[in-house]
Amino acid sequence: MVTNPNFFYVSPEVYLEGERVSPIKHEYRKGRIYAMVGAKKPHIVLNTNLATLLNIHLDDSPCLVLTSDIKVRLEEANCYYYPDIAVVCDEREINNTDDFILYPVLIIEVLSKSTESFDRGDK
Questions:
Q1: Which end of the chain is more exposed for a tag (fewer CB within 10 A), N or C?
Q2: pTM for the structure as a whole
Q3: Beta carbons within 10 angstroms of residue 120's beta carbon
């Protein structure tokens, strides 16, 4: 077996432990950790407006609208991503206090020129 000396594998458990105390957000992709950059004002405004509209629309439902501080766990892909907005309606999500979700019914990414390719592709 040949190993890549430049690749240091981090387990999901170690990633989650570190992420809980990190001052910045990181995404996790198959054992690798990637720091996230901050969003620009137009991105933040659009994200806030979309989350507000969704909250109003889902007011009488059991669903929760979650913004960019919650991770989505993609178990089959061995990844954790921070979407701009996620909506959960599953009781398993509503009643737990995990710092990630497994069963979103909607995920929204506000695209920018610098992230569009990744957001539409791998993510």
A1: N
A2: 0.85
A3: 10
